[in-house]
Design goal:
The chain is 18% helix and 32% strand. The protein is an alpha+beta fold. It has a 6-stranded antiparallel beta sheet with strand order 2-1-11-10-7-8, with no helix packed on it. The longest helix has 18 residues. The two termini are 24 Å apart.
Protein backbone atom coordinates (compact mmCIF):
# COMPACT_ATOMS: atom_id res chain seq x y z
CA UNK A 1 0.00 0.00 0.00
CA UNK A 2 1.18 3.53 -0.80
CA UNK A 3 0.08 6.88 0.56
CA UNK A 4 0.28 10.55 -0.35
CA UNK A 5 0.64 13.07 2.47
CA UNK A 6 -0.44 16.54 1.35
CA UNK A 7 0.52 19.72 3.24
CA UNK A 8 -1.70 22.49 1.88
CA UNK A 9 -3.45 25.59 3.24
CA UNK A 10 -2.03 25.13 6.76
CA UNK A 11 -3.38 21.57 6.97
CA UNK A 12 -1.96 18.09 6.49
CA UNK A 13 -4.00 15.21 5.11
CA UNK A 14 -3.08 11.69 4.03
CA UNK A 15 -4.60 9.75 1.12
CA UNK A 16 -4.43 5.98 0.68
CA UNK A 17 -3.67 5.13 -2.95
CA UNK A 18 -6.03 2.19 -3.24
CA UNK A 19 -9.05 1.17 -5.30
CA UNK A 20 -7.89 2.96 -8.47
CA UNK A 21 -4.93 2.96 -10.84
CA UNK A 22 -5.00 6.72 -11.40
CA UNK A 23 -5.58 9.73 -9.13
CA UNK A 24 -6.04 13.22 -10.59
CA UNK A 25 -4.50 16.10 -8.64
CA UNK A 26 -5.87 19.58 -9.15
CA UNK A 27 -7.94 22.53 -8.01
CA UNK A 28 -11.67 22.02 -7.57
CA UNK A 29 -13.87 24.30 -9.66
CA UNK A 30 -17.43 24.24 -10.95
CA UNK A 31 -16.26 22.12 -13.89
CA UNK A 32 -13.47 20.16 -12.22
CA UNK A 33 -13.61 17.62 -9.38
CA UNK A 34 -10.16 15.97 -9.03
CA UNK A 35 -9.54 12.90 -6.85
CA UNK A 36 -7.11 14.83 -4.63
CA UNK A 37 -8.11 18.47 -4.27
CA UNK A 38 -5.36 21.04 -3.75
CA UNK A 39 -6.46 24.43 -2.46
CA UNK A 40 -3.94 26.84 -3.96
CA UNK A 41 -3.96 29.51 -6.68
CA UNK A 42 -0.74 27.92 -7.99
CA UNK A 43 -2.56 24.67 -8.83
CA UNK A 44 -4.28 24.09 -12.16
CA UNK A 45 -7.64 22.37 -12.47
CA UNK A 46 -5.93 19.28 -13.92
CA UNK A 47 -2.41 19.73 -12.61
CA UNK A 48 -1.01 16.21 -12.58
CA UNK A 49 -1.90 12.64 -11.81
CA UNK A 50 -0.56 9.62 -9.98
CA UNK A 51 -0.62 6.52 -12.19
CA UNK A 52 0.01 2.92 -11.18
CA UNK A 53 1.95 0.86 -13.73
CA UNK A 54 3.41 -2.64 -13.64
CA UNK A 55 6.66 -1.15 -12.35
CA UNK A 56 4.97 0.93 -9.62
CA UNK A 57 3.56 4.43 -9.13
CA UNK A 58 4.48 7.35 -11.40
CA UNK A 59 3.72 11.07 -11.45
CA UNK A 60 2.46 12.54 -14.71
CA UNK A 61 2.67 16.34 -15.11
CA UNK A 62 -0.23 17.52 -17.30
CA UNK A 63 1.14 20.79 -18.64
CA UNK A 64 0.07 22.97 -15.71
CA UNK A 65 0.84 26.69 -15.61
CA UNK A 66 3.23 26.56 -12.62
CA UNK A 67 4.55 23.02 -13.06
CA UNK A 68 5.62 20.50 -10.42
CA UNK A 69 8.90 20.00 -8.57
CA UNK A 70 10.14 16.51 -7.70
CA UNK A 71 12.76 16.46 -4.95
CA UNK A 72 13.42 20.21 -5.49
CA UNK A 73 13.92 19.89 -9.25
CA UNK A 74 11.26 21.10 -11.66
CA UNK A 75 9.87 18.40 -13.93
CA UNK A 76 10.84 19.37 -17.48
CA UNK A 77 9.33 18.56 -20.84
CA UNK A 78 11.00 16.06 -23.12
CA UNK A 79 12.55 17.08 -26.44
CA UNK A 80 9.20 16.47 -28.16
CA UNK A 81 7.50 18.95 -25.84
CA UNK A 82 5.63 16.29 -23.89
CA UNK A 83 5.91 15.25 -20.23
CA UNK A 84 6.94 11.66 -19.49
CA UNK A 85 5.71 9.77 -16.40
CA UNK A 86 8.25 10.04 -13.58
CA UNK A 87 8.69 6.90 -11.38
CA UNK A 88 8.11 7.55 -7.69
CA UNK A 89 9.93 5.98 -4.75
CA UNK A 90 8.97 6.10 -1.07
CA UNK A 91 10.26 9.34 0.41
CA UNK A 92 9.96 11.33 -2.84
CA UNK A 93 8.65 14.88 -2.38
CA UNK A 94 6.42 16.66 -4.91
CA UNK A 95 5.92 20.42 -4.67
CA UNK A 96 3.74 22.94 -6.49
CA UNK A 97 4.90 26.50 -6.03
CA UNK A 98 5.15 29.90 -7.67
CA UNK A 99 8.70 31.10 -8.20
CA UNK A 100 7.53 34.59 -9.16
CA UNK A 101 7.55 35.91 -5.60
CA UNK A 102 4.08 34.85 -4.44
CA UNK A 103 3.20 33.78 -0.92
CA UNK A 104 4.89 30.58 0.25
CA UNK A 105 1.75 29.81 2.29
CA UNK A 106 0.06 28.79 -0.96
CA UNK A 107 2.74 26.25 -1.84
CA UNK A 108 1.63 22.61 -1.90
CA UNK A 109 3.96 19.93 -0.56
CA UNK A 110 3.34 16.19 -1.04
CA UNK A 111 5.17 13.16 0.38
CA UNK A 112 4.90 9.82 -1.45
CA UNK A 113 5.39 7.01 1.05
CA UNK A 114 4.77 3.33 1.73
CA UNK A 115 4.32 4.12 5.42
CA UNK A 116 0.83 3.80 6.82
CA UNK A 117 -0.16 7.26 7.97
CA UNK A 118 -2.51 8.46 10.67
CA UNK A 119 -6.10 9.43 10.03
CA UNK A 120 -5.56 12.52 12.16
CA UNK A 121 -2.88 15.16 11.55
CA UNK A 122 -2.34 18.11 13.83
CA UNK A 123 -0.38 21.32 13.50
CA UNK A 124 1.63 23.40 15.94
CA UNK A 125 2.58 27.00 15.08
CA UNK A 126 6.26 27.87 15.42
CA UNK A 127 5.61 31.28 16.96
CA UNK A 128 7.30 30.61 20.30
CA UNK A 129 10.92 29.97 21.09
CA UNK A 130 10.95 26.29 22.09
CA UNK A 131 8.68 23.31 21.37
CA UNK A 132 9.01 20.30 23.65
CA UNK A 133 8.17 16.85 22.23
CA UNK A 134 7.74 13.66 24.24
CA UNK A 135 5.45 11.17 25.92
CA UNK A 136 4.83 13.21 29.07
CA UNK A 137 1.63 15.29 29.12
CA UNK A 138 3.60 18.44 30.02
CA UNK A 139 5.14 18.57 26.50
CA UNK A 140 3.84 20.89 23.81
CA UNK A 141 3.49 17.93 21.44
CA UNK A 142 2.58 14.65 23.14
CA UNK A 143 3.39 11.38 21.33
CA UNK A 144 1.81 8.57 23.33
CA UNK A 145 4.04 5.65 22.45
CA UNK A 146 6.00 3.50 24.93
CA UNK A 147 9.12 3.93 22.80
CA UNK A 148 9.05 7.74 23.01
CA UNK A 149 10.98 9.25 25.92
CA UNK A 150 9.35 11.41 28.55
CA UNK A 151 11.04 14.49 27.07
CA UNK A 152 12.31 13.14 23.78
CA UNK A 153 13.24 16.23 21.77
CA UNK A 154 13.07 20.01 21.60
CA UNK A 155 12.79 22.31 18.60
CA UNK A 156 14.04 25.85 19.24
CA UNK A 157 15.26 28.93 17.44
CA UNK A 158 18.98 28.96 16.74
CA UNK A 159 21.30 31.95 16.64
CA UNK A 160 20.75 32.34 12.88
CA UNK A 161 17.02 32.91 13.26
CA UNK A 162 16.07 29.44 12.03
CA UNK A 163 15.13 26.35 14.00
CA UNK A 164 17.12 23.35 15.23
CA UNK A 165 16.03 20.02 16.68
CA UNK A 166 17.77 18.58 19.75
CA UNK A 167 17.78 14.94 20.87
CA UNK A 168 17.46 15.00 24.65
CA UNK A 169 19.39 11.77 25.18
CA UNK A 170 16.54 9.51 24.06
CA UNK A 171 17.06 5.76 23.72
CA UNK A 172 15.13 5.43 20.45
CA UNK A 173 16.75 8.46 18.83
CA UNK A 174 15.55 10.85 16.11
CA UNK A 175 15.73 10.46 12.34
CA UNK A 176 15.65 13.48 10.02
CA UNK A 177 15.29 12.84 6.29
CA UNK A 178 16.28 9.21 6.78
CA UNK A 179 19.41 9.85 8.87
CA UNK A 180 19.94 9.47 12.60
CA UNK A 181 20.95 12.68 14.29
CA UNK A 182 23.22 13.17 17.26
CA UNK A 183 22.81 16.18 19.51
CA UNK A 184 21.43 19.22 17.66
CA UNK A 185 20.70 19.69 13.93
CA UNK A 186 19.36 22.70 11.96
CA UNK A 187 15.98 22.17 10.29
CA UNK A 188 15.07 23.18 6.76
CA UNK A 189 11.70 23.72 5.16
CA UNK A 190 9.80 20.43 4.74
CA UNK A 191 12.27 18.28 6.64
CA UNK A 192 10.76 14.92 7.62
CA UNK A 193 11.28 13.98 11.27
CA UNK A 194 10.73 10.44 12.56
CA UNK A 195 10.43 9.73 16.27
CA UNK A 196 9.91 5.94 16.58
CA UNK A 197 6.58 5.23 14.81
CA UNK A 198 5.53 8.89 14.47
CA UNK A 199 6.11 11.32 11.60
CA UNK A 200 6.51 15.09 11.94
CA UNK A 201 6.86 17.59 9.07
CA UNK A 202 8.74 20.83 9.69
CA UNK A 203 7.92 23.98 7.73
CA UNK A 204 9.25 27.45 8.39
CA UNK A 205 6.18 28.47 10.40
CA UNK A 206 4.33 25.26 11.35
CA UNK A 207 5.13 21.79 12.64
CA UNK A 208 2.73 19.06 11.44
CA UNK A 209 2.56 15.75 13.27
CA UNK A 210 0.60 12.52 13.30
CA UNK A 211 -2.12 12.40 15.89
CA UNK A 212 -2.43 9.49 18.28
CA UNK A 213 -4.96 7.67 16.12
CA UNK A 214 -3.52 5.35 13.47
CA UNK A 215 -5.60 3.75 10.75
CA UNK A 216 -4.90 0.15 11.59
CA UNK A 217 -3.71 0.52 15.14
CA UNK A 218 -5.93 -0.84 17.92
CA UNK A 219 -6.37 1.22 21.04
CA UNK A 220 -3.70 0.44 23.59
CA UNK A 221 -4.58 0.11 27.24
CA UNK A 222 -2.56 2.53 29.36
CA UNK A 223 -2.02 2.72 33.12
CA UNK A 224 -4.70 4.51 35.08
CA UNK A 225 -4.01 7.07 37.75
CA UNK A 226 -3.36 4.37 40.32
CA UNK A 227 -1.12 2.33 38.05
CA UNK A 228 -3.22 -0.82 38.49
CA UNK A 229 -2.58 -3.69 36.05
CA UNK A 230 -5.23 -5.29 33.88
CA UNK A 231 -6.83 -8.37 35.34
CA UNK A 232 -5.81 -11.67 33.78
CA UNK A 233 -8.52 -12.58 31.32
CA UNK A 234 -9.60 -16.19 30.84
CA UNK A 235 -8.08 -17.97 27.87
CA UNK A 236 -10.53 -18.07 24.99
CA UNK A 237 -10.35 -20.50 22.12
CA UNK A 238 -11.72 -17.96 19.67
CA UNK A 239 -10.51 -17.48 16.12
CA UNK A 240 -8.55 -14.36 15.28
CA UNK A 241 -10.62 -11.49 13.93
CA UNK A 242 -9.47 -10.09 10.58
CA UNK A 243 -6.73 -7.55 11.09
CA UNK A 244 -4.38 -5.53 8.92
CA UNK A 245 -1.16 -6.99 7.58
CA UNK A 246 1.69 -6.47 9.98
CA UNK A 247 4.24 -8.44 7.94
CA UNK A 248 4.44 -8.89 4.20
CA UNK A 249 7.61 -10.35 2.76
CA UNK A 250 9.06 -11.69 -0.45
CA UNK A 251 12.43 -13.21 0.37
CA UNK A 252 13.86 -13.74 -3.08
CA UNK A 253 17.05 -15.29 -1.74
CA UNK A 254 19.55 -15.14 1.10
CA UNK A 255 23.16 -16.16 0.60
CA UNK A 256 26.10 -16.40 3.00
CA UNK A 257 29.81 -16.95 2.33
CA UNK A 258 30.80 -20.57 1.92
CA UNK A 259 32.78 -21.89 4.90
CA UNK A 260 35.52 -23.09 2.54
CA UNK A 261 36.02 -19.48 1.44
CA UNK A 262 34.86 -20.12 -2.12
CA UNK A 263 31.75 -18.37 -3.33
CA UNK A 264 28.36 -18.14 -1.62
CA UNK A 265 25.85 -20.65 -0.27
CA UNK A 266 22.13 -20.06 -0.83
CA UNK A 267 20.03 -20.70 2.29
CA UNK A 268 16.48 -19.82 1.15
CA UNK A 269 14.77 -18.91 -2.12
CA UNK A 270 11.45 -17.35 -3.20
CA UNK A 271 9.66 -17.31 0.16
CA UNK A 272 6.45 -15.25 0.22
CA UNK A 273 4.82 -14.67 3.60
CA UNK A 274 1.97 -12.52 4.94
CA UNK A 275 1.09 -12.27 8.64
CA UNK A 276 -1.99 -10.57 10.08
CA UNK A 277 -1.97 -8.44 13.19
CA UNK A 278 -3.20 -10.34 16.25
CA UNK A 279 -2.39 -13.82 14.95
CA UNK A 280 -0.39 -16.76 16.31
CA UNK A 281 1.77 -18.24 13.55
CA UNK A 282 3.71 -21.51 13.54
CA UNK A 283 6.90 -21.77 11.46
CA UNK A 284 7.57 -25.43 10.67
CA UNK A 285 9.96 -27.50 8.60
CA UNK A 286 12.54 -30.24 8.65
CA UNK A 287 16.06 -29.54 9.88
CA UNK A 288 17.95 -27.29 7.45
CA UNK A 289 14.78 -26.04 5.75
CA UNK A 290 15.56 -22.41 6.63
CA UNK A 291 13.17 -21.70 9.51
CA UNK A 292 15.64 -19.64 11.55
CA UNK A 293 16.91 -17.90 8.42
CA UNK A 294 13.38 -16.86 7.48
CA UNK A 295 12.59 -15.65 11.00
CA UNK A 296 15.78 -13.59 11.19
CA UNK A 297 14.91 -11.94 7.88
CA UNK A 298 11.35 -11.21 9.02
CA UNK A 299 12.45 -9.62 12.29
CA UNK A 300 15.32 -7.70 10.67
CA UNK A 301 18.00 -9.31 12.84
CA UNK A 302 20.00 -10.80 9.95
CA UNK A 303 19.32 -9.49 6.46
CA UNK A 304 22.91 -9.51 5.16
CA UNK A 305 22.98 -11.28 1.80
CA UNK A 306 19.18 -11.10 1.49
CA UNK A 307 17.47 -9.99 -1.68
CA UNK A 308 13.81 -9.10 -1.56
CA UNK A 309 11.50 -7.04 0.62
CA UNK A 310 10.18 -7.22 4.18
CA UNK A 311 7.39 -4.78 4.99
CA UNK A 312 6.58 -4.23 8.67
CA UNK A 313 3.38 -2.21 9.17
CA UNK A 314 3.73 -1.22 5.50
CA UNK A 315 7.31 0.04 5.82
CA UNK A 316 10.54 -1.34 4.44
CA UNK A 317 12.03 -2.99 7.52
CA UNK A 318 15.63 -3.00 6.30
CA UNK A 319 15.60 0.66 5.28
CA UNK A 320 13.94 1.75 8.54
CA UNK A 321 15.27 -0.85 10.96
CA UNK A 322 16.78 1.61 13.44
CA UNK A 323 13.38 3.24 13.88
CA UNK A 324 11.20 0.11 13.77
CA UNK A 325 13.33 -2.29 15.82
CA UNK A 326 11.81 -1.07 19.09
CA UNK A 327 8.48 -2.62 18.04
CA UNK A 328 9.90 -6.11 17.39
CA UNK A 329 10.91 -8.62 20.04
CA UNK A 330 13.14 -11.62 19.33
CA UNK A 331 13.15 -14.31 22.00
CA UNK A 332 15.90 -16.93 21.62
CA UNK A 333 15.56 -20.53 22.75
CA UNK A 334 18.44 -19.95 25.15
CA UNK A 335 17.35 -18.45 28.44
CA UNK A 336 18.50 -14.84 28.90
CA UNK A 337 17.40 -14.09 32.46
CA UNK A 338 19.29 -13.91 35.78
CA UNK A 339 18.09 -16.92 37.73
CA UNK A 340 18.97 -15.45 41.14
CA UNK A 341 16.50 -12.58 40.69
CA UNK A 342 12.79 -12.86 41.39
CA UNK A 343 10.40 -12.78 38.46
CA UNK A 344 9.29 -9.23 39.13
CA UNK A 345 12.88 -8.05 39.67
CA UNK A 346 13.95 -9.52 36.33
CA UNK A 347 11.05 -7.87 34.50
CA UNK A 348 11.67 -4.57 36.23
CA UNK A 349 15.30 -4.65 35.09
CA UNK A 350 14.19 -5.59 31.56
CA UNK A 351 11.72 -2.70 31.44
CA UNK A 352 14.34 -0.21 32.64
CA UNK A 353 16.79 -1.46 30.02
CA UNK A 354 14.35 -1.53 27.08
CA UNK A 355 12.08 1.45 27.70
CA UNK A 356 13.22 5.10 27.41
CA UNK A 357 15.66 6.17 30.13
CA UNK A 358 13.26 8.56 31.83
CA UNK A 359 10.19 6.30 31.85
CA UNK A 360 8.42 7.03 35.18
CA UNK A 361 8.79 4.36 37.86
CA UNK A 362 5.01 4.21 38.12
CA UNK A 363 4.70 3.23 34.46
CA UNK A 364 7.49 0.65 34.76
CA UNK A 365 5.71 -0.99 37.69
CA UNK A 366 2.43 -0.96 35.76
CA UNK A 367 4.05 -2.65 32.75
CA UNK A 368 5.68 -5.26 34.98
CA UNK A 369 2.33 -6.00 36.65
CA UNK A 370 0.54 -6.14 33.31
CA UNK A 371 3.11 -8.48 31.74
CA UNK A 372 3.00 -10.82 34.74
CA UNK A 373 -0.78 -10.90 34.40
CA UNK A 374 -0.70 -11.45 30.63
CA UNK A 375 1.59 -14.48 30.97
CA UNK A 376 -0.06 -15.98 34.03
CA UNK A 377 2.93 -15.55 36.34
CA UNK A 378 1.18 -13.95 39.34
CA UNK A 379 1.71 -16.98 41.57
CA UNK A 380 5.51 -16.91 41.09
CA UNK A 381 6.19 -13.18 40.85
CA UNK A 382 8.05 -13.16 44.22
CA UNK A 383 9.93 -16.41 43.49
CA UNK A 384 13.53 -16.62 42.43
CA UNK A 385 13.59 -17.63 38.78
CA UNK A 386 15.78 -20.65 39.53
CA UNK A 387 12.89 -22.07 41.58
CA UNK A 388 10.37 -21.75 38.74
CA UNK A 389 9.28 -24.66 36.55
CA UNK A 390 10.49 -25.11 32.97
CA UNK A 391 7.23 -23.78 31.55
CA UNK A 392 7.33 -20.75 33.82
CA UNK A 393 10.92 -20.04 32.78
CA UNK A 394 9.89 -20.07 29.11
CA UNK A 395 7.17 -17.53 29.84
CA UNK A 396 9.65 -15.36 31.76
CA UNK A 397 11.92 -15.42 28.70
CA UNK A 398 9.01 -14.12 26.61
CA UNK A 399 8.04 -11.57 29.27
CA UNK A 400 11.45 -9.91 29.06
CA UNK A 401 10.57 -8.60 25.58
CA UNK A 402 6.83 -8.32 26.11
CA UNK A 403 7.30 -5.87 28.99
CA UNK A 404 8.46 -3.28 26.41
CA UNK A 405 5.13 -3.67 24.55
CA UNK A 406 6.47 -5.08 21.28
CA UNK A 407 4.00 -5.35 18.39
CA UNK A 408 5.68 -8.44 16.92
CA UNK A 409 7.20 -11.28 18.94
CA UNK A 410 9.46 -13.86 17.25
CA UNK A 411 10.03 -16.96 19.39
CA UNK A 412 12.56 -19.71 18.68
CA UNK A 413 11.23 -23.07 19.95
CA UNK A 414 9.78 -21.78 23.25
CA UNK A 415 8.26 -25.22 23.88
CA UNK A 416 11.54 -27.18 23.69
CA UNK A 417 11.89 -29.57 26.63
CA UNK A 418 8.40 -28.97 28.02
CA UNK A 419 5.99 -31.78 28.82
CA UNK A 420 2.67 -31.94 26.88
CA UNK A 421 0.59 -30.13 29.51
CA UNK A 422 3.14 -27.29 29.79
CA UNK A 423 3.29 -26.95 25.99
CA UNK A 424 -0.46 -26.59 25.71
CA UNK A 425 -0.58 -24.07 28.54
CA UNK A 426 2.18 -22.02 26.88
CA UNK A 427 0.49 -21.99 23.47
CA UNK A 428 -2.90 -21.15 25.01
CA UNK A 429 -1.31 -18.15 26.73
CA UNK A 430 0.34 -17.07 23.46
CA UNK A 431 -2.98 -17.43 21.62
CA UNK A 432 -4.67 -15.33 24.28
CA UNK A 433 -1.92 -12.73 23.96
CA UNK A 434 -2.39 -12.57 20.19
CA UNK A 435 -6.18 -12.48 20.11
CA UNK A 436 -6.90 -10.27 23.12
CA UNK A 437 -3.85 -7.99 23.13
CA UNK A 438 -3.41 -7.88 19.33
CA UNK A 439 0.19 -9.04 19.43
CA UNK A 440 1.48 -10.82 16.35
CA UNK A 441 3.49 -13.86 17.38
CA UNK A 442 5.69 -15.96 15.10
CA UNK A 443 6.88 -19.22 16.66
CA UNK A 444 9.34 -21.84 15.40
CA UNK A 445 8.09 -25.24 16.59
CA UNK A 446 8.78 -28.92 15.91
CA UNK A 447 6.01 -30.61 17.86
CA UNK A 448 2.71 -30.16 15.97
CA UNK A 449 0.47 -31.76 18.61
CA UNK A 450 -1.08 -28.39 19.54
CA UNK A 451 -1.19 -26.94 16.03
CA UNK A 452 -4.96 -26.38 16.27
CA UNK A 453 -4.25 -23.46 18.62
CA UNK A 454 -2.44 -21.59 15.85
CA UNK A 455 -4.07 -19.31 13.31
CA UNK A 456 -1.50 -19.81 10.56
CA UNK A 457 1.03 -22.43 9.53
CA UNK A 458 4.11 -21.62 7.47
CA UNK A 459 5.88 -24.77 6.35
CA UNK A 460 9.37 -24.82 4.86
CA UNK A 461 10.96 -27.65 2.90
CA UNK A 462 14.58 -28.37 1.98
CA UNK A 463 15.04 -28.94 -1.75
CA UNK A 464 18.45 -29.20 -3.42
CA UNK A 465 19.97 -27.90 -0.15
CA UNK A 466 17.93 -24.67 -0.29
CA UNK A 467 14.99 -23.75 1.98
CA UNK A 468 11.75 -23.26 0.03
CA UNK A 469 8.18 -22.43 0.99
CA UNK A 470 5.89 -25.47 0.93
CA UNK A 471 2.72 -24.01 2.45
CA UNK A 472 1.21 -20.98 4.18
CA UNK A 473 -2.34 -20.93 5.53
CA UNK A 474 -4.53 -22.16 8.36
CA UNK A 475 -4.01 -25.59 10.00
CA UNK A 476 -7.24 -26.79 8.38
CA UNK A 477 -6.08 -25.61 4.96
CA UNK A 478 -2.75 -27.36 5.52
CA UNK A 479 -4.46 -30.73 6.00
CA UNK A 480 -6.48 -30.21 2.81
CA UNK A 481 -3.38 -29.15 0.89
CA UNK A 482 -1.30 -32.16 1.94
CA UNK A 483 -4.24 -34.57 2.04
CA UNK A 484 -3.17 -35.75 5.48
CA UNK A 485 -2.22 -34.48 8.92
CA UNK A 486 0.58 -31.93 9.21
CA UNK A 487 2.57 -34.52 11.16
CA UNK A 488 2.39 -36.90 8.19
CA UNK A 489 3.19 -34.04 5.80
CA UNK A 490 6.80 -34.19 7.00
CA UNK A 491 7.11 -37.62 5.37
CA UNK A 492 5.52 -36.38 2.14
CA UNK A 493 7.97 -33.49 1.96
CA UNK A 494 10.92 -35.78 2.58
CA UNK A 495 9.80 -38.15 -0.20
CA UNK A 496 8.82 -35.60 -2.85
CA UNK A 497 9.77 -32.03 -1.88
CA UNK A 498 9.57 -30.62 -5.42
CA UNK A 499 5.84 -31.38 -5.63
CA UNK A 500 4.96 -29.02 -2.77
CA UNK A 501 7.22 -26.05 -3.47
CA UNK A 502 5.12 -22.88 -3.82
Amino acid sequence: MFYLLVVNAKKAKSYALEGKNSFLLGRRTRNSNPDICLNSPYVSRSHGKLVRTKEGWCYQEMGSKNGTWLNKRKIAREANGEFSPIPLRPGNILCIQNTGGGSSEDNVWMLFTDRELADIWQSFPLSGGTIRIGRNSSNDIVLSSPYVSKQHATISRNNKGGFSIQDNGSRAGIIVNGRNISGSRPLNDFDIIYITDRTLIFTRDTLYFEGNSRKAKPARSEPNDKGNPNELRPIKNSSVSPGPLILEAHLETKKVPNQNGRGMVELIRDVRISVLEGSLVALLGQSGAGKSTVMNCLNGMDTAGMQGTVLFCGEDLRANFNRLKHQIGSVPQKEVFHEMLTVEEELREAAIFRLPHNTPRKEIEWRVDRTISQLGLQHVRKNQIKKCSGGEMRRINIAIDLVADRKLLCLDEPDAGLDPSMKRELFEILRNLAHQDRKSILVIIHDVSELSLFDQVIMMVKYQNVGRLAFSGSPEEAEKYFGTSVRQAYDLLAENPERYIQ
